[in-house]
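haha ok so turns out i had the wrong file open the whole time. this is the CORRECT one, sorry everyone. sequence first:
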Amino acid sequence: MRMGRVEARVSQGETIFGKIIRGEIPSDKVYEDDLAVAFRDIHPVAPSHVLVVPKHPFVSLLDSSPAEAAVLGHLLWVAAEVARREGYAEDGFRVVINNGESAGQEVEHLHLHVLGGRRFGWPPG
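then structure:
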C-alpha cells in the first residue's frame, strides 16, 4: 500500500539518510549545501559511488511536486559537481535514480547514485 504525501514526508525523516543529514550517523561527505548533501556509498558498485540526497524530505520522484522542480534540478547539478570534484567528469559518469522497490530503491528517501571511475555497459541492470 502506497503512503500519502504527508505520511511519506513524516516517516522518511527517520531513514538512514535523514539521520545522515542531521549528523546522527557519520558519513564521508563530498559535498553539502542548503538543499543537498552528497556522500560516499558504503556499498559501492563503482570505483566512485556517491549518493546525492535532498535535505527536503520526499520519498521518490513520484512523491515530488512541481514546487520541488528546482530542488530536483539542483540535485542533477550536484551530481555533475560531484563528478567534477571526483575527477571523472570528462571520462563520463552515470547518474541513477531508483524509483520504487521493483527498481531497486532500498531507502524511502529520494537519492541519486553518481557512479564513475569505470566503463559502464548498456543496457543497465
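The radius of gyration is 14 Å.
again sry for the mixup
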